[in-house]
User: Fold this.
Amino acid sequence: MRAEFVRDVMTPGVVAVRPDASLVEAARLMRAQNIGGVVVADGQEVVGVLTDRDITVRAVAEGLDPQTVSARSVCTPDPLTVGPYDLLGAAVVLMREHAVRRLPVVEDGLPVGMLSLSDLAEQQTPGLAEQQAPGSAVAGVRGSEPEAGPDARADAGADARADADAAP
Assistant:
């Protein structure tokens, strides 16, 4: 079966933290769920994405205290999102254009899943092998530079969910 829509390959369900959650709280949740990123949600609204890399590079490496720093202050704010019925190819192009590895999947304003590079890599979709080749959409995302910082819009949504290559 050829995957056509985001819903065909996304990981259903969302692991989320409140904006005021500490980085320690978020990191423990990531460890417990064996994932590398969480959605930062204010109620049902996605307000950001926080990854293990964000915690390391944007907080710990800067000497910030992960016990007192909030998820909102380190996450990528206003992440790019896709819908479950969006075309998969369009989502791949979006990931490449914005150099993001994960996208929250939102339906009727509510987060319903995640789309990550690992979701795409697991697909046996015709044409995916070409996308993974050098210069392809997925290769372009995989080879992207780390996020510049929480204010960089181009990296919005950068790490909505862990993918296999981000795991320790």
Q: What stands out?
A: The chain has a mean pLDDT of 79. Residues 23-33 form the longest helix (11 residues).
